[in-house]
Specification:
The complex is a heterodimer of chains A (about 80) and B (about 375).
Chain A lengths: L6 H36 L3 H32 L1
Chain B lengths: L2 H34 L5 H15 L5 H9 L8 H21 L5 H17 L6 H34 L4 H41 L12 H25 L9 H20 L6 H16 L6 H30 L6 H20 L12
The chains are: A mainly alpha (about 80), B mainly alpha (about 375).
């Protein structure tokens, strides 16, 4: 016997956990990449600076993608 | 104009007032974190939050449907019942505001609706299972999920950027906060404006303006609800500018980003499945999680306890008030006189309370 309906609740919980923690992860990587890129540029290491900058930009794009896909899913499912 | 139409007009105006006060009251929750970390200037934060509150009201109607169909039998609802529900909720909000108790407008509204329906039709018109499934269980679970997401996010962030220059990291997360704060405002508009849409639609069905079968929210109701909450947010925001930095919690930008992201994703996920949450409780959960992950002792657990106590009290108290309002309205017969008299008393009593205790509306600080 089910005391309360769990399907929607479980969907809410796992969507929140996955999206929330993913955004934190990729945005932190973006901040890491951009910050390290600036540090490398100051240390006159252009190669490393470019690699960190690329990492930062890719992570930033991934953050934006997660946010946009999340919103689209909310609108679509509603 | 029939007496039913007069009551409907009173109900719609009362619902708009409720929606406005909801936005007014919740502005601090939505923008406080961005302002306290100086991610964005107060005026810009409030303008952005108002705009996104308005837009957010258009992205989902599932919560409105839950309010309209999930808790009470729609054929048991009359315009007077909706009126009593709104007055009960506003009355409870005014009392908790007067005594400084952290209360949920959303739970007060649903409690009021249930109380008024019980007074009018008895307990058989209330969908108890719906209340458990779509209100009580999500109300307990959602803030806990926000707590875990907020705490987990800040641990991830500190793990990745913890050894970098704090100044540069802070600038990065402040930029992120502009987006996460925007998402939080969007989610707030989505979930909270829909509650007003739900009760106005219930009143329209009760008055025979739209058919009960095939519940749908008219576009003008969406516009009015979105506009009222956005205007409330904009107006309420100006009060906290004067107090920001004194009572609002002290967080670093990474914590602010984590807390806002946690609040936004939980509210949006809940909205997509139709749960009418207390956005205040969810945002408080995210803030507490982000604070506790850094230092458990930094969290003002007493405030968190007050929120829990107020939450337990809100549903039955608002229900009792709404039932009493329904009874008082009935003393004047079934026409528009009862709602008119009660609305007049509410305006006078509310005005007296506000005059006796005017104080800035700020988010309850849950971390020191």
């Amino acid at each position: 016997m089910t005391i309360f309906a769990t399907a929607a609740l479980v969907r809410m919980v796992y969507a929140s956990l996955i999206v929330g923690l993913s955004v934190a992860l990729v945005f932190s990587i973006a901040v890491f990449g951009v910050t390290r890129s600036n540090d490398m540029r100051r240390a006159r290491r252009p190669g490393a600076s470019a690699r960190y900058a690329t990492l930062g930009m890719l992570a930033l794009l991934a953050s934006a993608a997660i946010a946009i896909v999340g919103l689209v899913l909310v609108v679509h499912k509603s | 104009m029939s007496s039913g139409d007069v009551i409907l007009v009173i109900v719609v105006l009362t619902a708009i007032a409720f929606d406005f006060t909801n936005g007014f009251h919740d502005t601090a929750n939505v923008v406080a974190t961005s302002i306290s970390t100086r991610a964005i200037r107060p005026a810009q934060a409030i303008a952005l939050a108002s705009l996104l509150n308005f837009i957010g009201a258009f992205i989902s109607l599932k919560v409105a449907t839950t309010i309209g169909k999930g808790f009470v039998a729609s054929d048991a609802v009359t315009t007077t019942v909706v009126f009593a529900a709104l007055v009960g909720a506003i009355g409870w909000n005014l009392i908790t505001w007067y005594y400084g108790l952290p209360s949920s407008s959303s739970h007060a509204l649903i409690g009021g609706l249930v109380g008024a329906v019980i007074a009018a039709q008895g307990t058989s018109a209330v969908n108890g299972q719906g209340l458990v499934d779509k209100l009580i269980v999500p109300a307990v679970v959602a803030p806990l999920v926000a707590f875990v997401v907020g705490g987990g996010s800040i641990l991830i962030a500190y793990r990745i950027v913890g050894r970098l220059r704090p100044g540069a990291v802070g600038r990065g997360f402040r930029l992120g906060q502009i987006v996460s704060g925007g998402l939080l405002a969007l989610s707030h508009g989505t979930n909270d404006a829909q509650k007003t849409m739900g009760v106005i639609t219930l009143a329209l069905i009760a008055n025979g303006n739209i058919p009960a079968a095939g519940f749908h929210v008219p576009l003008w109701v969406v516009f009015v609800s979105a506009g009222a909450i956005a205007l409330g947010t904009f107006t309420g925001g100006w009060k906290i500018i004067k107090t920001v930095g004194t009572r609002i919690i002290s967080m670093d930008p990474a914590q602010g980003f984590s807390a806002q992201t946690a609040g936004a994703v939980v509210i949006l996920a809940a909205s997509s499945v139709g749960y009418p949450l207390s956005t205040t409780h969810v945002i408080s959960g995210g803030i507490t999680g982000a604070g506790a992950a850094k230092s458990v002792s930094a969290v003002r657990w007493g405030v968190a306890g007050d929120i829990v106590r107020a939450w337990i009290l809100t549903l039955p108290a608002a229900a009792c008030m709404a039932a009493a309002v329904y009874g008082i309205t009935g003393l004047f017969g079934h026409g528009a006189l009862g709602p008119l008299v009660v609305a007049g008393i509410l305006v006078l009593a509310g005005g007296a309370l506000v005059t006796r205790r005017i104080r800035p509306v700020v988010a309850p600080p849950v971390t020191s």
